[in-house]
Design brief:
- It is a single chain.
- The protein is of the alpha+beta class and about 290 residues long.
- It is about 65% helix and about 10% strand.
- The protein is built from ten helices and six strands; from the N terminus they run H-E-E-H-E-H-E-E-E-H-H-H-H-H-H-H.
- It has helices spanning about 20-35, 55-70, 80-105, 145-150, 150-165, 170-190, 195-235, 245-255, 260-265, 270-290, and strands at about 35-40, 45-50, 70-75, 120-125, 130-135, 135-140.
- The strands form two sheets. The chain has a four-stranded mixed beta sheet with strand order 3-4-6-5, with helices on both faces.
- It is globular.
- The chain binds zinc ion (ZN).
- The site of zinc ion has 5 residues, from helix 5 and helix 7.
């Protein structure tokens, strides 16, 4: 006989899975989707975003200030000027590239360019890293320079990062994570009457489902969008887009080591990535021809 029973003295009868909670969640998720979706310029893909560009820019600015205050910002030498020059050229062609890519896909341009207040910094660091925060705050870490090797490849990296910001990928990820959180809460409620072992099993399956079914493919999609748009920006700004191939190959070799740098953990460079870039190359060279005449 079990005398060491845990829980209430008069045990409640264990129930099953509460489907109605998940049905409510599905209805909410549907509402959330339809009330927050918008078309991504450049890509024609429908995005789920629940913030506005001004809010995102404010968050980006705060993060930027925080990072710069904790970093060694490079002001001497050639590099800061070179990086600023690349950024200026990429940003300058942005609206025209957006119009061209949107027209090619039969969608309307939708980027709120005035929500971006661009700034560029070079950060002294061993990390092979670069980013562009929402609202247009860009940083290039000196550790990525040996991997880039030349200004054309650096333009491909910066174009990629700027594309993430233009396409509001982090806003999309925030909206998706919010939905995943609410989904996880709903699952918690749905299983709260089941026995703890079953609860854990259901939560694990649902968690893995959200991770591998939703968030991970999503980040792959963001990567390939940023690759494409970044490549076109670099080409339109008269950089050699072909340098992007060698760049991502070098990135791949870097990540083959024991501890991949931070940038690589979010930017895995597989053969699919290279193959896709090669596929996009004729279009990139066409754009370079049209914008730069060579
Ligand atoms: Zn990326």
């Amino acid at each position: 006989m079990n005398t060491m029973r845990q829980g209430p003295a008069t045990p409640r009868r264990r129930g099953g899975f509460r489907w109605w909670v998940l049905i409510l969640f599905a209805l909410y998720a549907g509402y959330y989707w339809f009330s927050n979706q918008q078309d991504a310029a450049f890509t024609g893909r429908t995005q789920l975003i629940s913030s506005d560009p001004q809010q995102e820019a404010a968050m980006g600015l705060q993060a930027y200030r925080q990072i710069l205050s904790e970093s060694n910002v490079v002001t001497q030498g050639q590099l800061p000027g070179q990086v600023r020059d690349i950024a200026a050229r990429l940003i300058q062609v942005g609206p025209r590239v957006e119009a061209d890519l949107a027209a090619a896909r039969g969608v309307k341009p939708s980027i709120q360019w005035n929500a971006f207040d661009w700034d560029v910094s070079v950060i002294q660091s061993d990390q092979a890293n670069a980013f562009c925060l929402p609202g247009g705050k860009i940083a290039v870490y000196t550790g990525i320079i040996p991997v880039a090797q030349n200004l054309d490849a650096l333009a491909a990296i910066m174009g990629h990062e700027i594309a993430h910001a233009l396409l509001r990928h982090s806003a999309e990820r925030m909206a998706q994570q919010k939905l995943a959180q609410i989904g996880s809460m709903a699952t918690g409620m749905a299983v709260s009457d089941m026995d703890p072992q079953q609860q854990r099993a259901v939560m694990a399956v649902m968690g893995a489902g959200a991770q591998y079914g939703m968030l991970l493919p999503f980040s792959r999609e963001h990567e390939s969008e940023a690759d494409e748009v970044g490549l076109m920006l670099a080409a339109a700004a008269c950089y050699d887009p072909r340098e992007a191939i060698g760049l991502w190959q070098r990135m791949g070799q870097l990540s083959a080591g024991q501890a991949p740098p931070e940038f690589m953990s979010t930017h895995p460079s597989g053969e699919t990535r290279i193959a896709r870039l090669q596929q996009l190359m004729p279009r990139a060279l066409e754009i370079r021809q049209a914008y730069c005449g060579n």
